[in-house]
Design brief:
This protein has helices at 11-19, 73-83; strands at residues 5-9, 24-28, 43-48, 55-67, 89-97. The protein has 104 residues and is of the alpha+beta class. 15% of the residues are buried.
Length: 104
């Protein structure tokens, strides 16, 4: 059985998942974040930072890979602030959560 994919998040993004407002995570496509690693049906653990207290479990339900143009404008701005690479390929990991950040 494949180990759940660990996805550390900034507090604001973790909290949005916990409230049910966020259902996907964006990453720059590459060795660590790609279609093989982020496979459909793979379990994930969303973490508020790298601590062990705040965790949400879920499963990957869809994966989209493409140029920045597949994103909304505010998402493009966020990705460019982080990576400063207008030619990057992005991966959008759609996640259905199974628990709501209960700290377990």
């Amino acid at each position: 059985m494949e180990k759940p994919l660990f996805i550390p998040l900034k507090a604001e993004y973790y909290d949005a998942f916990a409230r049910g407002e966020k259902t996907s995570e964006l990453r720059k496509w590459g060795k660590r974040w790609n279609g093989n690693v982020c496979s459909l049906g793979r379990k994930v653990v969303l973490s508020r930072g790298y601590g062990k207290k705040h965790r949400i479990r879920g499963v990957i339900t869809q994966v989209d890979i493409g140029a920045l143009a597949i994103l909304q404008e505010h998402q493009i701005d966020s990705m460019l602030k982080i990576y400063n690479d207008p030619e990057m390929v992005v991966i959008v990991i759609h996640i259905t959560t199974e628990s709501k950040g209960d700290g377990k």
